[in-house]
Every structure is written in structure tokens, then in C-alpha cells.
Inverse folding.
């Protein structure tokens, strides 16, 4: 491993192309630098400096040594920082999984506030759907889940609190055949029309869908935003978060329809494993308990 001084010498010679200029740049005598260069070559038993030309240059072996040593020193510096970080109670990385119901944009102010702590903790934020959100916590793919739906499952040392309640509306596009149908819509009438669904990402065999009747055709879409767009375009029917589509209902682009089988509101949860107790996780859990943030996450961004 090269010392900081040896790496600085290699970099100075590479940049200046002159032993005297490199020495002046480092505040050393040219003879001292020349001696250090020969000692380095003797240690590696390799020609590291090309002295045959007007400019002093690194040989291919010298360039490789300089580049790799610089990378290794950078890695060592980062490792030292991480060791101090973990020793002081901060995690190396925090894995956060949100249910796809929550928009990533609503978390941006929280991420910005967390960055201001300068903790050095890396954030990895991904999303899952329905059972996949709880599964990420159970399988160790998440340290924290936000917006998980349904009752908390049996997970060792699970800790959780309620984030809020999401209300749903059965809505169709203004030009969809069901827009003018008599209410309440019976199951057999809804079943004749294709439903838009965001597919459950659970790794378990028993994946779920909401508001879909047996034998009903389905349009599987990648996100709630895509589901809203599909129903707005009259391509499918289904349940949508009421707060997200309030403006579309008010403008008439979507039409609310009462159904014979109403959908109950969903409680959303924040959850984590009790054996994880780093400062980053504690900060996020505390922040997510703030009432205004809880409301913003559950209500989401209104589609217009």
C-alpha cells in the first residue's frame, strides 16, 4: 500500500511531467523526490518512471500503480468514515420500502431533511404492492416499510403504528358504458367490464387483488397513477383513492358510481423490526409520526 506522500508524488509527477516542478509543487527538494522515486521502484522491482524523454512520465506500470493506489486510498477513507459512522450509532444503509399507493414525491422533503443531518447513511427506497410490502420487511429486504395495507402479519419483533386511513371511490371514465348505468351497480354488472388492477408483488403464492370479481377481465398496470389514467381514459373500471381523484370527479372526467358491495377504507401502516435500532431508523420513525406528514402521505397528490 502506498503512503499519502508516495501517492502525492506520483500524482505530482503525472501532472507536471517534471521532477523539479513536482518537487516545487510538494515543497520538497528535487533530490529528496528523486530518492523517494527510486526507493518506490526498488520496492516494487519495476520501472515506474520513464526518464528517457524530455518530460518525466509514468510508465504503464507507474500509471497503474498510481490509479489503483488512489482508488484504494479512497476506499480506505470511505471505510474509515463508515466505521466511525456505525460506531456512533448510525447505520451504513437504511432500506425503505413504500407501498406503491404512496407517491415518492411526497417523501422528497423528508429525504432533504434527513440529508441535512449529514449522517453518511445511504438510503435505498423501493416500492412493493399489497403483500409484497409486508414481505419485504419479513424477508429482510426492508428495514422500514411505509404505507403497508391490511393487518400487520406475524413477523418476529414487529413494531408498527397506523399511518392513516385511505378512502376509496368506484369510478369510471365519463364515456365508459357504466357512467350512465343505474345505481347501485350490482356485482354481475360490474363483472361484465374489465377492471384495472395494480398487481400484488408478494413472493408468496397467495397474491391478492381488490375489487375484482371472479371471472372478471383484468388490465394489469404498473402503478396507481397508471390505474387512474386507464380508468380516466375509459379503458377499465375499479376503485381509486378518493383524495387523489377528487379534482377529476369534480370536473366530470371521472364519474363516481355507488355499488351494491362498497369497499371499506384501508388502514395504512408504518412498520419495522424491533431488533433494528440505529439512529437513522429512529429518526425516520419519529418523523413519520408527525400528523401533517401522515396526512400528506395518505392523501397523496391530487391528479388534475
Amino acid at each position: 500500500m502506498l503512503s499519502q506522500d508516495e501517492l502525492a508524488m506520483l500524482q505530482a509527477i503525472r501532472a507536471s511531467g517534471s521532477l523539479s516542478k513536482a518537487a516545487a509543487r510538494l515543497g520538497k527538494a528535487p533530490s529528496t523526490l528523486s530518492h523517494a522515486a527510486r526507493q518506490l521502484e526498488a520496492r516494487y522491482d519495476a520501472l515506474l518512471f520513464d526518464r528517457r524523454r524530455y518530460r518525466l512520465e509514468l510508465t504503464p506500470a507507474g500509471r497503474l500503480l498510481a490509479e489503483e493506489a488512489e482508488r484504494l486510498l479512497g476506499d480506505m477513507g470511505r471505510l474509515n468514515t463508515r466505521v466511525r459512522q456505525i460506531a456512533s450509532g448510525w447505520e451504513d444503509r437504511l432500506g425503505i420500502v413504500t407501498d406503491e399507493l404512496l407517491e415518492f414525491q411526497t417523501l422528497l422533503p423528508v429525504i432533504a431533511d434527513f440529508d441535512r443531518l449529514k449522517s453518511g447513511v445511504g438510503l435505498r427506497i423501493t416500492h412493493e404492492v399489497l403483500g409484497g410490502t409486508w414481505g419485504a420487511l419479513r424477508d429482510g429486504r426492508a428495514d422500514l416499510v411505509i404505507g403497508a395495507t391490511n393487518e400487520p402479519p406475524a413477523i418476529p419483533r414487529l413494531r408498527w403504528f397506523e399511518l392513516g386511513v385511505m378512502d376509496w371511490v368506484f369510478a369510471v371514465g365519463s364515456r365508459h358504458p357504466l357512467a350512465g348505468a343505474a345505481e347501485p351497480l350490482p356485482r354481475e354488472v360490474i363483472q361484465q367490464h374489465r377492471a384495472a388492477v395494480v398487481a400484488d408483488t408478494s413472493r408468496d403464492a397467495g397474491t391478492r387483488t381488490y375489487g375484482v370479481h371472479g371471472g372478471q377481465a383484468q388490465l394489469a398496470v404498473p402503478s396507481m397513477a397508471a390505474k387512474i389514467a386507464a380508468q380516466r381514459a375509459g379503458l377499465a373500471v375499479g376503485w381509486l383513492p378518493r383524495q387523489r381523484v377528487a379534482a377529476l370527479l369534480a370536473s366530470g372526467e371521472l364519474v363516481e358510481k355507488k355499488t351494491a358491495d362498497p369497499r371499506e377504507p384501508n388502514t395504512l401502516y408504518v412498520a419495522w423490526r424491533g431488533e433494528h435500532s440505529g439512529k437513522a431508523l429512529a429518526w425516520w420513525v419519529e418523523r413519520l409520526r408527525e400528523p401533517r406528514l401522515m396526512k400528506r402521505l395518505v392523501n397523496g397528490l391530487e391528479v388534475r
